[in-house]
Design brief:
The complex is a heterodimer of chains A (235) and B (238). Chain A is mainly alpha-helical. Chain A has one domain (2-233). In chain A, 85% of the residues lie in helices and 0% in strands. Chain A is globular and about 60 Å long. The two termini of chain A are 24 Å apart. The model of chain A has no long low-confidence stretch (mean pLDDT 89). With 238 residues, chain B is α/β, with parallel strands linked by helices. Chain B has nine helices and ten strands. In chain B, a hairpin with a 2-residue loop joins strand 9 and strand 10. In chain B, 42% of the residues are buried. The model of chain B has no long low-confidence stretch (mean pLDDT 87). The chains are: A mainly alpha (235), B alpha/beta (238). The interface between A and B is medium-sized, with 22 and 28 residues.
Chain lengths: 235, 238
């Protein structure tokens, strides 16, 4: 447990000493701010629905940029050898890095709370969906981070890691919309269940259902477990 | 103290280490010598838990590396070749992180870091980022990394490579001083250095052991005074 904390601290700090953190947060806030406010006054509704509707798509290309370096960079410069020969286990390394990425996403999301507060001034804001939205955003961020970590462990090239995780995250986000047109109704449900967007929108409505929680937790678990297997295989 | 038993490692079809057996006694400074690509680094990587062997095993005082890896890792300080470090971290932050992982307790930590900075002459660079450092300083950060947490076994992969003659002499002093209380296994291409520091040498070539003895005994056995010629004879340099 101690070791997870030390790895977490190191990785979290590493985000903020390199410019990448500030660039990613900057780009994220611009995109989200524009998507949110461009139609905000046309809708004439005091709600954050617009913010959360498009969040999965935004996350699908922002989060791979956050996670791409976590293993790729270490494998590439060889510092992974130093880290791995210290008395820490693979699991501690993976969980520490994962938590650091999730904490970073939390920091990235934090400024958007200003939108909620200013919306509350303009009308009756229903806080249920807002809280659900943020909970969902953290779960979705966690799932995409875990996928990003998996992609990062596959290659020493950060660009390749970015593209792999972006491809997976986008597929999970858009799955529902694509298959709806092509497939018979009987199996649409199955693909709907695989879609990250579907589960996220459920939570963002303010209904926290165990099925949706289970979906995100299983994506996180499976991806981190896969990362462990890949690192083990490299030995 | 450390027993390497029938150690074999394949990378795909390539056999990097081929049924290697040797022993390192407690308190000994052992030189693991051999030409590039002989398998030295692979042996170190298996000993430190970075790679797992294809077959065979390593035991550290009856603890098998396959079962008690974490316990063994705690006892080993490792300096990889060309110490690859976190480029963006401050030297201080980096050593602090390693001290935390190695379980140096909070009260001793500052003292430990100060002593190490003195020992490795790192005082001027503690608050620089690692990518600003010269090769010599990086190597010294690597040595400090290996010494943190006071491990009783040191594994040093070419600790003097890329250093200037003054730094080589300093590093050699550090190794000899540490060798009084620790078990050290290290490699070098500077044969005079091996002669000056090692209690015993193991020479490997193409993954196989070709000699395991003191340098004096090798001289007698091969009836040759120059260690360089001995080395070249044993590793088919001619």
């Amino acid at each position: 447990m101690e070791n997870i904390k030390h790895i977490f601290k190191k990785e979290y700090k590493a985000y903020f000493v390199s410019p990448i953190a500030y660039i990613v947060i900057f780009v994220f806030l611009i995109i989200v701010g524009w998507l949110f406010f461009s139609t905000f006054f046309l809708d004439r509704q005091a709600s954050l629905t617009r913010l959360f509707t498009l969040l999965p798509v935004t996350f699908a290309f922002i989060i791979p940029a956050v996670t791409m370096r976590l293993f790729s960079e270490e494998i590439n410069i060889g510092s992974y050898e130093l880290l791995h020969t210290l008395p820490v286990s693979n699991q501690e390394i993976i969980i520490g890095k994962f938590l650091a990425a999730v904490a970073f996403i939390g920091v990235m999301l934090a400024p958007t709370i200003v939108y909620a507060i200013s919306t509350a001034f303009l009308g009756e804001l229903d806080w249920g969906p807002v809280i659900g939205g943020y909970l969902g955003a953290i779960l979705l961020g966690g799932a995409f981070s875990a996928i990003g970590l998996l992609a990062s462990s596959l290659t020493r090239n950060q660009v390749v890691a970015f593209i792999i995780s972006m491809a997976i995250c986008f597929s999970l986000t858009l799955m529902m919309d694509f298959v709806l047109f092509f497939l018979p109704n009987s199996i649409v449900g199955f693909f709907q269940y695989l879609s990250a967007n579907y589960h996220f929108q459920n939570i963002a409505k303010g209904m926290v259902d165990s099925r949706d929680l289970l979906y995100f937790l299983s994506v996180i678990f499976l991806s981190l477990y896969g990362t462990g297997l890949i690192l083990q295989e490299k030995k | 103290m450390i027993n390497i038993e029938n150690l074999t490692k394949y990378y795909g079809d390539l056999c990097a280490v081929d049924h290697v057996n040797f022993e390192i006694k407690k308190g000994e400074i052992l030189g693991l010598l051999g030409p590039n690509g002989a398998g030295k680094t692979t042996i170190y990587r298996i000993l430190t838990g970075y790679l797992s062997p294809t077959s065979g095993t390593i035991k550290v005082e009856n603890d098998n590396i396959n079962e008690h890896l974490m316990k063994i890792k705690k006892r080993i300080g490792y300096l990889p070749e060309e110490a690859p470090l976190y480029h963006e971290m401050l030297v201080y932050d980096y050593l602090n992180f390693v001290a935390d992982i190695r379980g140096v307790n909070k009260i001793d930590k500052n003292n430990t870091l100060h002593e190490l900075a003195d020992l490795c002459s790192l005082n001027e660079v503690m608050h620089k980022t690692i990518d600003e450092l010269s090769k010599g300083y990086r190597q010294r950060v690597g040595i400090a990394h290996a010494l943190l947490g006071n491990p009783d076994i040191l594994v040093l992969d070419e600790p003097t490579s890329g250093l200037d003659p003054n730094q080589i002499a300093e590093t050699r002093d550090i190794i000899r001083r540490l060798g009084k209380e620790k078990t050290i296994i290290f490699s070098t291409h500077i044969l005079s250095e091996a002669e000056a520091t090692c209690d015993r040498v193991v020479i490997i070539d193409e993954g196989k052991i070709v000699a395991d003895d003191t340098i004096d005994a090798l001289r007698k056995e091969l009836n040759e005074q120059s260690f360089e010629i001995i080395f070249r004879k044993l590793t088919k340099g001619n």
